[in-house]
Amino acid sequence: MSAELATDNRVKTRRRREERCEGTIEMPFNEQVEVECPACGDAFLCTIATPDPEGFSPSFGSCTAWECDALIKFRSDGTEDDDTSDEPIQSGLAAFGGGAR
After folding, report:
1. CB 32, CB 26: distance < 8 Å
2. Residues 6+ apart with CB under 8 A from 64
3. pLDDT digits (tens, 9 = 90+) for 42-84
4. Hey, which bits of the chain come out as E strands?
5. How many angstroms separate the CA atoms of 61 and 42, rounded?
6. Do residues 25 and 38 lie in contact, with contact meaning Cβ atoms separated by under 8 Å?
7. Of 86, 78, 37, which is closest to residue 57 (Cα–Cα)?
8. Most CB atoms within 10 A, among 8, 19, 28, 34?
9. pLDDT digits 0-9 by tens, 24-37
10. pTM strictly above 0.70
11. How far is CA 38 from each of CA 8, 11, 31, rounded to the nearest angstrom?
């Protein structure tokens, strides 16, 4: 029952944010970019840092202008770099691989 209640609350929160949203900005996540508020026109630097841009898109945030209380929806534009590589993260581990007991 509590998992169902949590899901219901997430849905309600999402709907409320969607209703209050002033506009949507598509941007690459995990990068610092300059965005413009759709309500007041103020430009500011913004970063949405997340390990999984597709899983955390959209994200909601506020305008940084003092007089503006706009709620903005930030959506991933899909241009994030793929950080998966075949090279190991730690290097120099070969020295510890053999002969030690």
Report:
1. no
2. 37, 42, 44
3. 999 999 888 888 887 788 899 999 999 999 999 988 887 665 5
4. 21-27, 33-36, 43-46, 59-62, 71-76
5. 14
6. yes
7. 78
8. 28
9. 999 999 999 999 99
10. no
11. 29, 25, 20
